[in-house]
């Protein structure tokens, strides 16, 4: 197979791995690890068994070597002292050593290397001759066989020592080789582990990270980003991710419905105030129309134009009010646009202006000039502010002050918008629940959606909204929205207006 074909097969295999289920991946990983552990275990067992066998053969050869040294000692005593007992001792040691070597031959020979086998056979042959000469010592004078006897004894000693040295060197080489092979095997296992980690567990971690990001987006109310996530399910995690995406689509739909319900709830309160505001221009139009009809024949052209101009002005006033209400109530997808926070505050205050007048609440606006711009859905932020303003007005049934201020925190690069009232405040035991859906302090007059929807909108804009309140002293809401970075910075010049 060519290198190009091997690469193609490898790429195909990796792509196929991505389609395996978690169960299949775990089974494959466990089987591979079991095979590797089995191979290493067999190698370690074989290596140590081989070393033990070699050590056992060394013990046998060492015993043979020691026996030869004892025989040489008896040989020396015989030639020095002409002691026949020493010769008998030598023969007895030699026979025992010969028997031991012959009985161990079947065990030792397969373990020894080829030179060692020759040396072992050579020892047996020399030992046979050595013992044969020792048995002839009773009938032959020592001078006739001393030289040959000593030569055979020396050969026994040298060959046994050489054999012992060879085996020790062989054991040393085997141990070194086994250590190198063990290290190499561990290195291969480590590489295979890295491959398993990358192509098995690494893929799982990547998929879990995707799921983690999606869950965080859901918790932040960014359902649309999750809903558009397209995944073809191949394993359990991807199926779960697909389920999260599907859930996000449903939540997005429910959020739109709740958002609209919150708008309608706020709109119902607004209409009660706007009805009074619409009454004034309608009365003016009615009176001017009656006067115009009654005085038509007596009016000149210029006066007729003035009547029509006044009527047009009043109808434009009505149109503007209705247009603002329609813009506020219209259900639509989030549309982000770059805008100025000051304009949003002004439009939101205009929507509740008649409520402020009827409730005898004075507005105090304090907004820094040259604030960085924000990227928001204007309609949604207006909805949040209108809801906060209405809540503040309802918290001041006997009139009070509404403070609206905006600034910029250069360290966090967030714009801060503060809405504070001097109303009745909120009890401490329920303060932590006011952002919960359907929680309300207004009994049957409220839906419990306003602040919950407001919280979701701000979080969806990657911002934050918090509340501080003291019963009997008022409530303060603090909204933080990320700014669009600009070269200029906000200065400390303020625009203060009283209402």
What is the topology, as strand order, of the major beta sheet? 6-7-5-4-2-8
Rg from Cα: 51 Å
Question: How much strand content do the residues show?
Answer: 5-15%
Q: Regions with pLDDT < 50 over 5+ consecutive residues?
A: 443-448, 486-499
CATH superfamily of the largest domain: Histidine kinase-like ATPase, C-terminal domain
Report the CATH C-level class of the largest domain: Alpha Beta
Q: What is the number of domains?
A: 2
Question: Average pLDDT value?
Answer: 75
Question: What is the helix tally?
Answer: 13
Description:
With 499 residues, this protein is an alpha+beta fold. It folds into two domains: 190 residues, Four Helix Bundle (Hemerythrin (Met), subunit A), CATH 1.20.120; 238 residues, Heat Shock Protein 90. It is built from 13 helices and eight strands. A six-stranded mixed β-sheet has the order 6-7-5-4-2-8. A two-stranded antiparallel ribbon has the order 1-3. Strand 6 and strand 7 form a beta hairpin. Helix 7 crosses helix 11. The C terminus is likely disordered.
In short:
The protein is an alpha+beta fold and 499 residues long. The protein is 70% helix and 11% strand. It has 13 helices and 8 strands.
Properties at a glance:
Four Helix Bundle (Hemerythrin (Met), subunit A); six-stranded mixed β-sheet; 2 domains; two-stranded antiparallel sheet; 499 residues; 11% strand; rod-shaped; Heat Shock Protein 90; 70% helix; alpha+beta
Itemize the secondary structure elements and their pairings.
Blueprint: H1 3-18, H2 22-81, H3 84-111, H4 114-136, H5 142-219, H6 223-227, H7 236-295, H8 301-329, E1 337-339, H9 341-351, H10 353-358, E2 361-368, E3 374-376, H11 378-394, E4 400-409, E5 414-421, H12 428-431, H13 450-460, E6 464-470, E7 474-482, E8 494-498
């Amino acid at each position: 197979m060519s290198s190009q074909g091997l690469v193609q097969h490898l790429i195909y295999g990796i792509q196929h791995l991505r389609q395996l289920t978690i169960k299949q991946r775990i089974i494959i990983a466990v089987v591979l690890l079991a095979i590797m552990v089995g191979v290493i275990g067999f190698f370690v067992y074989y290596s140590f068994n081989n070393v033990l066998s070699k050590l056992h053969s060394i013990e046998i050869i060492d015993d043979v070597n020691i026996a030869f040294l004892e025989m040489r000692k008896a040989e020396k005593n015989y030639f020095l002292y002409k002691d026949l007992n020493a010769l008998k001792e030598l023969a007895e040691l030699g026979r025992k050593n010969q028997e031991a070597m012959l009985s161990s031959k079947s065990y030792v020979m397969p373990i020894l290397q080829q030179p060692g086998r020759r040396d072992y056979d050579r020892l047996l042959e020399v030992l046979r001759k050595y013992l044969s000469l020792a048995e002839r010592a009773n009938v032959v004078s020592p001078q006739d066989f001393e030289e040959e006897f000593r030569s055979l004894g020396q050969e026994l000693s040298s060959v046994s020592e050489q054999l012992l040295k060879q085996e020790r060197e062989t054991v040393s080489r085997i141990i070194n080789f086994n250590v190198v092979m063990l290290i190499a095997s561990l290195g291969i296992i480590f590489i295979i582990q890295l491959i398993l980690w990358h192509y098995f567990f690494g893929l799982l971690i990547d998929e879990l990270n995707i799921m983690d990001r999606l869950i965080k987006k859901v918790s932040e109310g960014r359902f649309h980003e999750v809903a558009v996530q397209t995944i073809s399910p191949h394993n359990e995690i991807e199926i779960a991710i697909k389920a999260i995406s599907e859930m996000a689509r449903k939540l997005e739909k429910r959020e739109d419905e709740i958002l609209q319900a919150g708008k309608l709830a706020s709109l119902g309160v607004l209409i009660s105030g706007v009805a009074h505001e619409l009454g004034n221009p309608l009365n003016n139009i009615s009176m001017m129309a009656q006067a115009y009809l009654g005085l038509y024949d007596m009016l000149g052209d210029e006066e007729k134009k003035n009547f029509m101009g006044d009527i047009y002005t009043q109808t434009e006033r009505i149109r503007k009010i209705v247009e603002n209400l329609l813009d506020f109530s219209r259900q639509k997808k989030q549309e982000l646009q770059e805008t100025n926070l000051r304009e949003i505050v002004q439009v939101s205050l205009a929507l509740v202006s008649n409520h402020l007048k009827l409730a005898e609440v004075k507005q105090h606006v304090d907004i820094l000039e040259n604030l960085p711009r924000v990227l928001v859905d204007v309609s949604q932020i207006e909805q949040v502010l209108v809801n906060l303003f209405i809540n503040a007005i309802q918290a001041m049934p006997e009139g009070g002050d509404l403070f609206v201020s905006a600034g910029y925190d250069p360290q966090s690069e967030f714009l801060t918008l503060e809405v504070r009232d001097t109303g009745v405040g909120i009890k401490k035991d329920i303060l932590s629940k006011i952002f919960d859906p359907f929680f309300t302090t207004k009994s049957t007059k409220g839906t419990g959606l306003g602040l919950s929807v407001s919280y979701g909108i701000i979080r969806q804009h990657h911002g934050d909204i918090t509340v501080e309140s003291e019963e009997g002293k008022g409530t303060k809401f603090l909204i933080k929205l990320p700014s669009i970075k600009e070269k200029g910075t906000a200065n400390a010049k303020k625009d203060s207006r009283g209402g």
